Amino acid sequence: MVAVKPLLEQYGCLLTVEDDLQVLTSDEGVVTKVEDKEGKTTEKKVTASVRVYVKATATIVDIETGQETKASAFAREAIVKKGMDDSQITGTASSYARKYALAGLFLLDDGQDDDSLKGAGDQQKKKPAAKPAAKKTAKKKQDSEGLLEKGAVIARLEMAKSIDTLQNLWVEVKDKEDEELRQMFQEKADQLNQKPELQESSKQFKNAIDWLLASNTNTIDRLKKKYKVTDHVEKSLIAAVEAAKNNKQ
C-alpha cells in the first residue's frame, strides 16, 4: 500500500478495500481439535457447523472517467486458533482476504504464501523448467542507454492520461527527431488539454471528494489539470470535503 499511494495520486485514482462477513451453516456438524492447558489434544464435535468467511473487495476508481475495477477474495475464520481470541481470529482472516484481493486486483504473486504451489513431489522438482515460448508483446524495449524505441513509445503514448505523464515519456524517447512521433505527441497533448468541466452532480465530483479525503496533500491543483473547475464548483468541493472530515470526527 505504501508503494501504490504515490501512483494513485499521480494517475488520479482512488483505491478502497472493504470487508464483508458471510456466515455458512450446516446441520452435519464439524469435528475440530482442541488443546487443553496441559497440551493434550482432543477432538470436539460441534453439532451445528457454523463457518464464518471474510470477503474482502478491493476497488480502484479512475476519478476522471469514473471507471471501476474490482477484485474479491475470501478467507475463512478458524474455529479455534491457539493463542488468539475471537477478534484476533477475525482480524487475521481479514488481513489475509485483503492481501489476496489486492493481489488479484494488481495481478501480484510472490509465490511465498503457505497455500502457494511448492512442488508436487521430488520427481517434479527434478524436471528442468521449460523455457517460455517467445512472444511478441507491446512491452517497452530499451536500448543500452535505457531510452525507449519507437514501438514502445507509441504503446505508452496511447495510455497517457496527463500532460505530466506525456512530458515524462518524452524524456525517455530515443529518437526525438522522428517527425511522426513529434506529431503524435502534439496531437496527444492537444487532446489532453481539452479538459472536461467538473459537474457538481456528477459521479466524478463524488470521486474527487473521496480522492481529496484520501490524499495527504492539497490535490486541488492536480484536479484542475484533469478538469475545468469553476469557482462555484471548487467552493462546493472544498465544503463537501470539510463536511466529510467533520462527520468522521
Number of strands: 5
Beta fraction of the residues? Answer: 15-25%
SSE-based structural type: alpha+beta
Mean pLDDT over all positions: 75
Number of helices: 9
Task: Report the helical percentage.
Answer: 40-55%
Oligomer: single chain
Low-pLDDT stretches are: 117-123, 134-144
Identify the overall geometry: flat
The run of helices and strands is HEEEEEHHHHHHHH
Brief digest:
The chain is of the alpha+beta class and 249 residues long.
Structure description:
- Strand 2 and strand 3 form a beta hairpin.
- The chain is of the alpha+beta class and 249 residues long.
- Helix 4 (150-159) runs parallel beside helix 6 and helix 7 (203-214) crosses helix 9 (231-248).
- The protein has helices spanning 5-11, 86-106, 122-126, 150-159, 163-171, 179-193, 203-214, 220-226, 231-248; strands spanning 13-26, 30-35, 41-46, 49-62, 68-76.
- The strands form two sheets. Strands 1-4-5 form a three-stranded antiparallel β-sheet. A two-stranded antiparallel ribbon has the order 2-3.
